[in-house]
């Protein structure tokens, strides 16, 4: 198979390129012009790297020439100061341009895999616990809506041009060296603080309707050192829950969506086997880093949990990494023999967290 991977230098993308080349696939890696993460791909001299922005139809057409499979990972993720229309232009219309490129290149595509998100389920106010693929997708932010339109655009093209496709919806993807940042004072401060951006908020509007929680959190962590292990709990101390997925499992899910016959025409949640309860996540950090653990009790309980039964049944997807394993893998990371390419690596491997 000849596979075009978009977003090939990203958190998932570089690891996807590695998986595909190891499986003997011919890989073309698409990155945006001037991509600072491009050096990650230097480890794969056999991979053809093409520069194309998802806004540039002519460049996309060149990138699509001759491929039999497409793994579409490129996306606009963080809000920052990104103009909001860019979420639609890149995540929705960028997907359209890529599909048009695939159609115009004249080859018969054997599979198009779109990576979508739990953001399409409105993570700030999930419609079900756990979330299955058939619950209503009613996102309330630019990112989630852009990703959902991308799904719809794909389904439309699949009907129009008979494109075999599959959709994966990731939980929060964690590269192991990033894992120890979660369940810390600052992580939840940032997540819960998104509400301050008001209408500009995207990704995780956990304060969907609950801006009062931010000052409560601040009061509870006021005396805590920045590296304190922190989890959130609802009334009575019931922990919040969060589905994560290790980047290695995320890649495995996409690979299966690309190659398994049972993937055709279906959408799959891709997450760890179990969601992580906040008390367990904070306990992992407290244990491995020998820091105090703090549970912050709030008046609501939030549960963002993805069911992976569908992926289990149709793809044989069996994620191998829980939160403890993600953190331990990040700590054990050495040199270039690591099992994964770190998200922030510009060449080889970079360690970000060390135990005290
Ligand atoms: N990281 C997560 O927690 C998460 C959760 C749910 C879904 N997803 C989805 O998974 C996919 C991969 O995410 P990731 O974590 O690897 O993200 P990432 O930001 O590490 O990688 C995204 C890549 O897209 C590329 N890109 C951005 N804008 C582009 C443009 N205009 N033209 C061409 N390329 C462009 C970037 O260069 C980057 O390498 C994305 O589609 C994302 O929406 C990620």
Describe this structure in words.
The protein has 356 residues and is an alpha/beta fold. It folds into two domains: 2-175 and 243-273 and 305-321 and 332-337, NAD(P)-binding Rossmann-like Domain (Rossmann fold, 3-Layer(aba) Sandwich), CATH 3.40.50.720; 178-241 and 277-297, no CATH class. Helices cover 33% and strands 16% of the residues. It has ten helices and 14 strands. The chain has helices at 13-22, 57-64, 85-104, 142-161, 185-193, 213-221, 247-259, 278-289, 309-315, 323-332; strands at residues 2-6, 26-31, 48-51, 69-72, 111-117, 165-170, 172-174, 229-233, 241-242, 244-246, 267-270, 276-277, 293-297, 303-304. The strands form four sheets. A seven-stranded parallel beta sheet has the order 3-2-1-4-5-6-11, with helices on both faces. Strand 5 (111-117), helix 4 (142-161) and strand 6 (165-170) form a beta-alpha-beta unit. It is globular, with a radius of gyration of 20 Å. Nicotinamide-adenine-dinucleotide binds next to strand 5 and strand 7.
């Amino acid at each position: 198979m000849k596979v075009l991977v978009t977003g090939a230098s990203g958190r998932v993308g570089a690891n996807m390129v590695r998986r595909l080349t190891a499986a003997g696939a011919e890989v073309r890696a698409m990155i945006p012009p001037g991509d600072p993460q491009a050096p990650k791909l230097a480890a794969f001299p056999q991979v053809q790297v093409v520069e194309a922005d998802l806004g540039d139809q002519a460049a996309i057409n060149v990138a699509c020439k001759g491929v039999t499979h497409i793994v579409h990972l490129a996306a606009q993720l963080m809000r920052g100061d990104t103009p909001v229309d860019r979420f639609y232009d890149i995540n929705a219309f960028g997907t359209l341009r890529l599909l048009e490129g695939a159609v115009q290149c004249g080859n018969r595509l054997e599979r198009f895999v779109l990576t979508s998100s739990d953001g399409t389920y409105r993570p700030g106010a999930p419609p079900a616990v756990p979330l299955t693929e058939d619950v209503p997708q009613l996102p309330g932010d630019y990112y989630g809506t852009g990703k959902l339109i991308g799904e719809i655009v794909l389904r439309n093209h699949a009907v129009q041009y008979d494109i075999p496709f599959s959709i994966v919806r990731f939980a929060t993807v964690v590269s192991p060296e990033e894992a120890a940042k979660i369940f810390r004072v600052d992580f939840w401060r940032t997540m819960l603080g998104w509400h301050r951006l008001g209408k500009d908020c995207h990704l995780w509007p956990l304060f969907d309707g609950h801006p009062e929680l931010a000052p409560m959190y601040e009061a509870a962590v006021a005396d805590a050192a920045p590296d304190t292990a922190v989890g959130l709990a609802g009334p009575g101390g019931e922990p919040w829950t969060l589905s994560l997925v290790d980047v290695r499992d995320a890649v495995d899910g996409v690979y299966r969506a690309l190659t398994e016959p049972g993937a055709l025409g279906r959408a799959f949640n891709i997450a760890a086997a179990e969601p992580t309860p906040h008390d367990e996540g904070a306990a992992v950090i407290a244990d491995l880093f020998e820091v105090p653990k703090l549970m912050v009790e709030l008046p609501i309980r939030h549960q963002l949990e993805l069911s992976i039964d569908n992926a289990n049944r149709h793809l044989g997807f069996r994620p191998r990494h829980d939160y403890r394993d993600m953190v331990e893998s990040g700590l054990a990371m050495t040199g270039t023999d690591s099992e994964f390419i770190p998200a922030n690596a510009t060449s080889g491997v970079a360690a970000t967290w060390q135990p005290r």
